[in-house]
Amino acid sequence: MNRYIDIEILTDPEFTSPQILSVLVRKLHQSLVDLNCNQIGVSYPEHKSTTLGGLMRLHANEHSLQRLMETGWLTGLLDHVKVSECLEIPKDSKFCMVSRVQVKSSPERLRRRAQKRHGISEEEARERISDRAAKTTNLPYVRLASISTKQKFPLFIQHGPVTEKNKLGEFNNYGLSSQATVPWF
User: Fold this and answer.
1) Which pTM value belongs to this model?
2) 63 an active-site residue?
């Protein structure tokens, strides 16, 4: 991983930055699935405690980034974003793990799942899973919809601590990893 591309979201009177970012993430996800690529990581250098900010940074080797960009995945978004060239990562970069966090926020959904998986009644599921089982988070997220089920869901994204140590590994189809780091600068 020695290259990066910055995708900056431009101010737009019709769409908010989070709306454009959600479309970017959805299109990136679809392209990474189509390419069957697990070597591209993503970070959000302008993230704050509750927002991902207006900059998406893609990290990989030059070949992987070129392959992605050749798919035309940004079609329809080029009026809303500014895309950098494929640039060399600074030598003095530190590293950060950017990962997905899944929150079990709906006791009702957990109960339905328990009924289906364990063949228990609705009453038994209510006894096993209380309303206090719900968890919440203040992590920044993008709102997405499943391609297969069309269900909407938040994709919560966590930036871990910045370290001196690089950890190699693979990235999921959102460019996130719970094991690998991306350069941080």
Assistant:
1) 0.85
2) no
